[in-house]
Amino acid sequence: GKASTALRAFEDELGAQPPLGFFDPLGLVADGNENKFNRLRYVEIKHGRIAMLAFLGNIITRAGVHLSGAIDLSGREFSDVPNGFAALYGADAIPREGLLQIVLFIGWLELFVMRDVAGTGEFVGDFRNMPLGIDFGWDTFSEEQKFQKRAIELNQGRAAMMGILGLAVHDKLGGSLPIVGDL
Fold first, then answer.
1. N or C terminus: fewer CB in 10 A for the chain?
2. 50: β partners
3. Residue 45 near residue 126 (C-beta atoms within 8 A)
């Protein structure tokens, strides 16, 4: 019927991979609306990119790698800030002013950098028009290589979303994890 035709509209899209194929258990795009699908894909890619940074940042700081220098005017070092949620809440947390700076910087990135500024993106989530003019050689890849690299990014983002969620849950539960150590 009409619903199965709408679902088949996205079966060949990036991210529809074995063993699940196209997976939409909540029926968010069951109507076949391509604009809605593109918006959800954009959000998925963006959250995946943020999760990759969050997961990597969590692992790196737990390994003892920190910025050098003081985090505030009192001279407290970056290495004195605890890991996980304790960095946001508690006596040794990042100062409120520092947290505000982080939020404002992310807002600035959201408004002026991490978007398709010129409307020239080849696909949803294509932010190559960054004001810094950074080019990582995307235009040298074949269409097949581009599709493969986009699929890799999408899957790594999905894995990172699950990874940072797992680290957050374990951070609240406490205990110890291999590689990560005590939480």
1. N
2. none
3. no
How far lies 20's CA from each of 17, 61, 121, 135, 159, in Å?
A: 6, 35, 28, 34, 15
DSSP 8-class letter at 80: G
The Cα–Cα gap between 167 and 115 comes to 28
Q: What is the DSSP letter of 77?
A: B
Letter string b/e over residues 126-145, b meaning 16 or more CB atoms within 10 A of that residue's CB: eeeeeeeeeeeeeeeeeeee
12-16, 58-62, 87-91, 175-179: the lowest-pLDDT one: 175-179
Q: Token pair of 27, please?
A: 């029926």
Query: DSSP assignment, residue 70?
Result: B
Distance from C-alpha of 3 to C-alpha of 155, rounded to nearest angstrom:
27
Burial (CB count <10 Å: 0-12, 13-18, 19+), residue 170 = middle
Is residue 18 reached through a cis peptide bond, with omega within 30 degrees of 0 on the bond before it? no
- What pTM was computed for the model? 0.81
Angle subtended at Cα 75 by Cα 102 and Cα 90, rounded to the nearest 5 degrees: 55
Paired strand residues for 17: 21
Local confidence band at 21 (pLDDT 50, 70, 90 cut-offs): confident
Those residues whose C-beta lies under 8 Å from the C-beta of residue 51, and which sit 6 or more positions away, are: 157, 160, 161, 163, 164
